[in-house]
Design goal:
EC 3.2.1.-, TIM Barrel, about 25% strand, Ig-like_fold, Oligo-1,6-glucosidase, domain 2, GH, Immunoglobulin-like, 6-stranded antiparallel β-sheet, alpha+beta, 15 helices, Ig_E-set
Length: about 575
């Protein structure tokens, strides 16, 4: 037995409340090292009187990576308190016990010793990770407002260019997209089938992207006004569409009155402690190699985006009031948190309390591109923009950096980082305003795009479509990925649009299966590029076959005879999904 590879951590993503008093317990071991993992558990105060130490309950192996196996069990302690340890049986039949004090061979310990057991003294329902149910049934549509639709030319900024979906935009170009444009296209969005809108920042700012906030309490005049936003949100809700706004709390724009006051008054400014200023006067220099240096902290290398000091009580109170204001007055359903990993955890914990108090079932998504365990413990974010997860998919199918088995291994390990509730509401996006578009990444191969997108839509979490992807909009890295939406029929790929509609309808129809179902792999053939897996939830079962190679497989041929729900070509970059 590889005892060094055995691992469990209580009061974490490996032991947590799930729902209705059910507790999920997980265990990790070396791959193919154990033939059985069992849990011995019971009331810590009745260990001897009930002799529950004599009963071992088997755990299910739920996933595997290249070098690890993962086990899980759901139990319901009757008195909301628990003591437990693990009984391990290796492939040679040898038994050992994994306890709070280490691993013991069978015969080297007495199971009647109380302090050997992991303890969960009392399971408080308020400590459970609670995620909004509606997110599991949502397909998001991300809109970069300045580039979606120009509904009111009267509010166009000076120098606005003619709307041209084929023109590659520059960093400072304006095309006149606004809230009225979104309002005008709600029929289109409803017909597409999406039921969640994520809007990049709409608050007053000087740039086209609006991540340089001037006033958090006002709508940018080039986008419209508060009355129009309220009308838009109400119209969305009437159509069953949720609305998520973008909160940029890590930094503020250089034209904000707070920063301008600092620039004017220096150390005498009442706002000097709103920022991280190391030396006065605050200034920026750029080296010959382009490296930016400043006497204050900023976002990335952007001297025009001074970083806010969220530990300052005034800053904190101000931003929390912003969070509450747009929920209570405008009834938004979610916040997306820009660069959430650059702000202190104490701030986000209080932010979560404010949002929960303002609206029931409110959804919070952090922009975190790496593993995010600390933000997903149940008291900060509900989910993150799941770049790390979808990047594993792209790294195999598009970048060809890793093999099929390694991709599946990375996906399994990534999901083990988080509680099941978090996995079920992750914000899964193949591309966004910060990345090249999916069609660009696919080398303009639309069959490959369909292949990858379908695979992503079958993952746990809430999938997202970046505006225009559905009609064949392409573009490289920022700013090219922020082209104007193509509205003229001759500039739209209507066949691709029909595919997106079918895929979105499919994902919504099978939301419960995909969110809650157990996944099992029937075929993983790296040489042929064949992957076959099943998602089972209750009596419903989805069979999924993906062929990235050039050959057919018997399983795929057999599946053709079944009732098809999504049926791509079974040749290269082909897939087949059916219910049986």
């Amino acid at each position: 037995m590889n005892s060094a590879a055995c691992y469990h951590r209580p009061e974490s993503e490996m032991a947590y409340l799930y729902d209705d008093g059910h507790l999920h317990i997980r265990f990790q071991s070396a791959k193919d090292d154990l033939q059985k993992v069992e849990v011995i558990w019971g009331d810590p105060y009745r260990l001897l009187s009930e002799r529950w130490y004599l009963n071992a309950q088997p755990m299910a192996q739920t996933a595997s990576s290249l070098d690890k196996d993962f086990y899980q069990i759901a139990i319901q302690p009757p008195l909301k308190r628990l003591a437990y340890l693990f009984k391990l049986t290796d492939t040679q039949g040898q038994v050992a016990y994994y306890t709070e004090h280490g691993i013991f061979a069978e015969g080297d310990l007495s199971l009647q010793i109380e302090n050997l057991y992991f303890r969960l003294p009392f399971l408080h329902d308020r400590d459970a990770f609670k995620a909004p149910q509606w997110v599991k049934e949502t397909v998001w549509y991300q809109i970069f407002p300045e580039r979606f639709a120009n509904g009111n030319p009267a509010n166009d900024p000076e120098g606005t260019l003619t709307w041209d979906s084929q023109r590659k935009p520059g960093y400072k170009d304006f095309f006149g997209g606004d809230l009225q444009g979104i309002m005008d296209k709600l029929d289109y969005l409803s017909d597409l089938g999406v039921n969640g809108l994520y809007l990049c920042p709409i608050f007053k700012a000087s740039s086209n992207h609006k991540y340089d906030t001037i006033d958090y309490f006002d709508i940018d005049p080039a986008f419209g006004d508060k009355k129009l936003l309220k009308q838009l949100i109400t119209a969305c809700h009437q159509r069953g569409i949720k609305v998520m706004l973008d909160a940029v709390f890590n930094h503020i724009g250089e034209e904000s009155p707070q920063w301008q006051d600092v620039l004017e008054k220096g150390e005498e400014s009442r706002y000097k402690d709103w920022f991280h200023i190391e030396q006065f006067p605050p200034q920026v220099t750029r080296s010959k190699r382009g490296h930016v240096r400043a006497t204050y902290h900023m976002f990335a290398q952007s001297g025009n985006l001074p970083k806010l000091n969220t530990a300052n009580p005034e800053v904190k109170a101000y931003l929390l009031e912003v969070a509450k204001y747009w929920i209570e007055v405008f009834d938004i359903d979610a916040w997306r948190l820009d660069v959430a990993n650059e702000i202190d955890h104490a701030f986000w914990k209080d932010f979560r309390k404010v949002c929960d108090a303002a609206k029931k079932d409110f959804y919070i998504v952090g922009e975190i591109w790496h593993s995010a365990q600390k933000w997903l413990e149940g008291d900060e974010c509900h989910a993150v923009m799941n770049y790390a997860y979808t990047d594993s998919i792209l790294s195999h199918y598009l970048y060809h950096q890793i093999g099929l088995n390694r991709m599946l291994s990375q996906l399994a390990e990534h999901q083990q980082l988080y509680r099941e509730q978090a996995n079920q509401v992750m914000f899964n996006l193949p591309a966004s305003h910060d990345t090249p578009r999916l069609l660009h990444l696919c080398g303009n191969n639309k069959e490959l795009l369909k292949f990858v997108l379908t695979f992503i839509f079958l993952q746990q979490g809430s999938p997202a479509v970046y505006y225009g992807d559905e009609v064949g909009l392409t573009g490289g890295a920022d700013p090219d990925c922020r082209r104007c939406m193509a509205w003229l029929p001759e500039n739209q790929d209507l066949e691709l649009l029909a595919f997106y509609k079918a895929l979105i309808a499919f994902r919504k129809s099978y939301a419960d299966v995909i969110s809650f179902g157990k996944r099992s792999f029937e075929l993983v053939d790296e040489e042929k590029g064949l992957l076959s897996f099943v998602i089972q939830h209750g009596d419903e079962r989805l069979s999924c076959i993906f062929n990235e190679g050039k050959t057919h497989d018997i399983a795929a041929e057999h599946a053709i005879m079944r009732q098809n729900y999504i049926n791509g070509k079974l040749e290269k970059h082909g897939f087949l999904i059916y219910q049986n």
